[in-house]
């Protein structure tokens, strides 16, 4: 159990959990009963509180709406065979939130406060963690600037919140992705490594254009040459080429994914060669041509392990090997699921029990 600090709690008068169909859970549409909230005022975090989930009242001049000081995280909670709730690497989310906060000139949140608020909220809404295989309680911590002021400057006041929603699979089917060589998600020295709201807003037009061409997502390339692969939509990228697991090296334009780190650790545990380095788009096409491109997949909190079945590049589609032949991604997806639900040993102490 995580010890919690004193948090003002107002319980919902009537739970909405009856709205939830555990056998038909859509991603991100039904929200749990409560939300955690704390304000940053006069240079200090104020008294935390948990309230019934509901709308916020904001000034039209709220700084985040105009100048983009908004960051977020994505996490999941799971149930084990005994019905106990487990969180996957939550401290890493707290640390990454603070990296994003520093980049966006926002206050950092003490890790202890993050964990205490999270623990109390999940404990209160633990019945919302679905028990069905392939499901989870998605957790959305986020922070935004709240100054009612029109002018480009860092806000003096902020609000940090957490809400939750039960979810099924983010991607129901294998992905068709397009290597993007016109639009840019981020550049070196930018904020691509932060989970900043603006990064996602800027990606929506090129993603929509790709979807109109029959693709599910984009593979972003570097902003300087549009030559090297970076990440894909809401995921980090992984390739298995000639028995090696290869992924783009982290930089200021690539998010340091927690699932990414977990996949790399498991691969090393199993003795698989791992390379974190630049990957040119042409290298992938050559590997496809000579038969050494064995697997491609995305990984992230929402998507977990999302197999890529087709890669589009310069007007041509390249189909990848059948899913049943993908030894590594199938194995790592199954192992992560087992670790998260307590069915496999947690050798790296990733899980936190609520």
From TrEMBL:
Lineage top rank: taxon: Bacteria
Record keywords, A-Z: Amino-acid biosynthesis, Aminotransferase, Branched-chain amino acid biosynthesis, Pyridoxal phosphate, Transferase
GO molecular function: L-isoleucine-2-oxoglutarate transaminase activity; L-leucine-2-oxoglutarate transaminase activity; L-valine-2-oxoglutarate transaminase activity
GO BP annotations, alphabetical order: isoleucine biosynthetic process; L-leucine biosynthetic process; L-valine biosynthetic process
Pathway recorded for this protein: Amino-acid biosynthesis; L-isoleucine biosynthesis; L-isoleucine from 2-oxobutanoate: step 4/4; Amino-acid biosynthesis; L-leucine biosynthesis; L-leucine from 3-methyl-2-oxobutanoate: step 4/4; Amino-acid biosynthesis; L-valine biosynthesis; L-valine from pyruvate: step 4/4
Claim: Zinc is one of the keywords in the record: no
Reaction equations catalysed: L-isoleucine + 2-oxoglutarate = (S)-3-methyl-2-oxopentanoate + L-glutamate; L-valine + 2-oxoglutarate = 3-methyl-2-oxobutanoate + L-glutamate; L-leucine + 2-oxoglutarate = 4-methyl-2-oxopentanoate + L-glutamate
Known EC number: 2.6.1.42
Enzyme class: transferase
Cofactor(s), names only, from the UniProt record: pyridoxal 5'-phosphate
InterPro entries: Aminotrans_IV, Aminotransferase-like, B_amino_transII, BCAT-like_C, BCAT-like_N, BCAT_family
Sequence positions bearing N6-(pyridoxal phosphate)lysine: 195
Entry's family note: Belongs to the class-IV pyridoxal-phosphate-dependent aminotransferase family.
Function: Acts on leucine, isoleucine and valine.
Protein name: branched-chain-amino-acid transaminase
């Amino acid at each position: 159990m995580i010890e919690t600090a004193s948090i003002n709690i107002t319980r919902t008068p009537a739970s909405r959990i009856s709205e939830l169909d555990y056998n038909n859970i859509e991603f991100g549409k039904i929200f749990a009963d409560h939300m955690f909230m704390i304000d940053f005022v006069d240079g200090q975090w104020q008294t935390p509180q948990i309230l019934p989930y509901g709308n916020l009242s904001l000034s039209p001049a709220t700084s985040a709406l105009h100048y983009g000081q908004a960051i977020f995280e994505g996490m999941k909670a799971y149930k084990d065979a005994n019905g106990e709730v487990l969180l996957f690497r939550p401290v890493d989310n707290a640390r990454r939130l603070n990296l994003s906060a520093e980049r966006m000139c926002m206050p950092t949140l003490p890790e202890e406060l993050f964990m205490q608020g999270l623990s109390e909220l999940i404990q209160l809404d633990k019945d919302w963690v679905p028990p069905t295989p392939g499901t989870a309680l998605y957790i959305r911590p986020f922070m935004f600037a709240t100054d009612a002021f029109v002018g480009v400057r860092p806000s003096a006041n902020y609000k940090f919140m957490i809400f939750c929603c039960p979810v099924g699979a983010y991607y129901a089917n294998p992905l068709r992705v397009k290597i993007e060589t016109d639009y840019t998600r981020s550049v070196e020295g930018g904020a691509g490594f932060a989970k900043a709201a603006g990064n996602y807003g800027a990606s929506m037009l090129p993603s929509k254009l790709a979807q109109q061409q029959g693709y599910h997502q984009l593979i972003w390339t570097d902003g300087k040459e549009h030559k090297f692969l970076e990440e894909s939509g809401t995921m980090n990228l992984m390739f298995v080429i000639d028995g090696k697991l290869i992924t783009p090296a982290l930089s200021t334009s690539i998010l340091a994914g927690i699932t990414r780190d977990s996949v790399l650790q498991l691969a090393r545990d199993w003795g698989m060669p791992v390379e974190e380095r630049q990957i040119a788009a042409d290298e992938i096409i050559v590997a496809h041509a000579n038969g050494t491109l064995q697997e491609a997949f995305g990984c992230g909190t929402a998507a977990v392990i999302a197999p890529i079945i087709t890669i589009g590049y310069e007007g041509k589609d390249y189909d990848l090997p059948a899913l049943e032949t993908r030894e590594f991604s199938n194995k790592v997806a199954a192992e992560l699921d087992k670790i998260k639900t307590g069915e496999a040993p947690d050798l790296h102490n990733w899980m936190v029990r609520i």
